[in-house]
Amino acid sequence: MTSRTQPRNRTLQSVLIVKMSSLGDVVHALPVASALRRSYPHMRISWAVEDWAAPLLVGHPAIDRLIVFPRMAGKEVSRAWLRSLANAVRELQSEPYDVSLDLQGLLKSSVVVLLSRARVRIGTHGQREGASFVSRAVPGDHGQIHVVDDYLRCAEFLGASASPVSFDLRVQPEAEAAVVRLLAEVHVPTQPPLIVINPSCSTAWRTWPAERWVPVVSALAADGAVVLIGSHKQVTRHAQIARAAWPRPHDLTGRTTLPELVALLGRCALHIAPDTGTAHIAAALGRPVVGLYGPTAPWRKAPYGNEDLAVYHPGACGPSCPRLCLRRRRCLQAATPEEIVHQARRAVARVPYDPRRVSANPSTAAAKGAKNASVHLS
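^ that's the sequence the OP posted. Answer follows.
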């Protein structure tokens, strides 16, 4: 059997999932691990991931072992970075793998796959940067398919059932306790629905203008307690939005760790965001999400199970939208604050808010149409 043929499923003992980043992409891949665990309870599942995204995988019931690599982009190569890389490679090669699943499809993930020495190497279609020369693409329709369902084809290729789609994203108890303290510190009311808004993306070409967010934040203050979130890089932008809005929202931008961000999203009645990691985290926790889409198509990357809540104007720019846009992002500019508010109120009405839900049941999270899942505490 060559390294690019279909494995005999009855012989599978160990699988390596390679999904290094980003936050949203790692979340999209979680159902693959859950599907393999359901179908093969005794299979040993390892996951290679970059350190900044690794907290999303801590405590996941389907993952036996995390192999944590240093971040492979945007970092200078220091001695400490090289030591971390060497340690990760040693850990990667400390166990054999029957199959590797490259769900990233990029140069960095294909290098990890090669270093793993997996007997069979499988990847998704649409691999780039030479990854297709390393891993065999799973066959399938190349039409409109959500990225979650696309990744699940790899699990099905190994004989696992993709249904039900389950993310099994965990809220860590320590993070939950920290969020309770933080909300009390900034005087966020406990009774009204919690509306969490992330007005920014890590990439400017997917980011709606700040002034468009102001009427959204102001209007939704009538529907609940509005909280802004985001990374340290977005503190200044979000502070400008908060100052311009009335009533003022609670601005927690840059004040949460990744586990705390997961816990905060698990408590919300609604999350609003562009195509960014927090939208996919909230959807995986079973929360309703209004997504703002333009350069990326919602049929591919809308928060899973919330495609009908996405605000999207597909005719503004044509069938695709490159990063270098000569049309001034008409696809994003076409969206209006009124549309966002309308979809937000639809979403809140669909899922009644219960603040006690966070400490109740595990969240097996959002399959399509399953918009009322509970949150999983480990």
